Amino acid sequence: MRGSSSAPTERVVDIVELLSQPRNRRMRFSDIAEELGQTQGTAHAILKTLSDRGWVTRDPAGKSFELGPMLSLIAASLNTARPLAHVAREAARRLSRKLDMPVSVVEVAGDELLITAFESPAHNPLREAVTDRIPYLPPFGVAFAAWDTSDAQRDWITRGSAGDIDLEHRLLAVLARTRDRGYDVDWMTPALAQIAHALGAVSADTLPAGLRPIIDQFRVELTSGIVDEEVTGEGRTVASISAPALDDAGHTRLILGVHPMLPMTTPDIEQVAQQLLREIRTLVSDTGD
N or C: which terminus of the chain has fewer CB atoms within 10 Å of its end residue's CB? Predict the structure, then answer.
């Protein structure tokens, strides 16, 4: 959405998102203020309002805050308000059982990709997503960008190429191949994904001027290496095979992704991809999109 953001609103949302993270289910007032860099006066005023409205509750004994019952009420309405996301979660659960592999649902929100569902077999070491949000820039979000408008594709490429013309052309070729094939294949390991995520989260505004070109070059080299694997990845460990659920205009609503984390040949990949695409056709049909 275009336009300037509201700093006071961001501070409220920051607190709700902080408490929604599994490791932060219960937090003391001082820890919330310190974690978010808010003054105690600001944090107190926000928490007081959120408590009054039922968005958070305070444990008088432990003096800690956690998410409140109003959010449960909101969550209960999501199945009706966002039917595609609800059906996608069920599809992820079904596909995970069928393939015996982890499966995720990913949606785009502004300049981030959000993992809104993650289903994994009980025996799989990848029990949860490496992170629940990813910067929407190369090498992430190929399956979104491949079906986006030309202008949006150029914006996505520009965010990750740092002016490297050769890399821009290669990223365009990746998007074209992905669209022709109907799905994206990612050879990035979880460790490499964490590095790429950390680099993507670095804001140029907070970097000393001398470090900016170094970080940009590191991003380019990392993205370039991953793009090259798109062509030379036969037999390498496949991190994800993902495909879009499209709207009537042909743009991506969400992504369903399988995470084998296994060495795979081209026939192996194609076999998983076909089951993935069948599941996506079913979920789109079930929601009438």
Answer: N
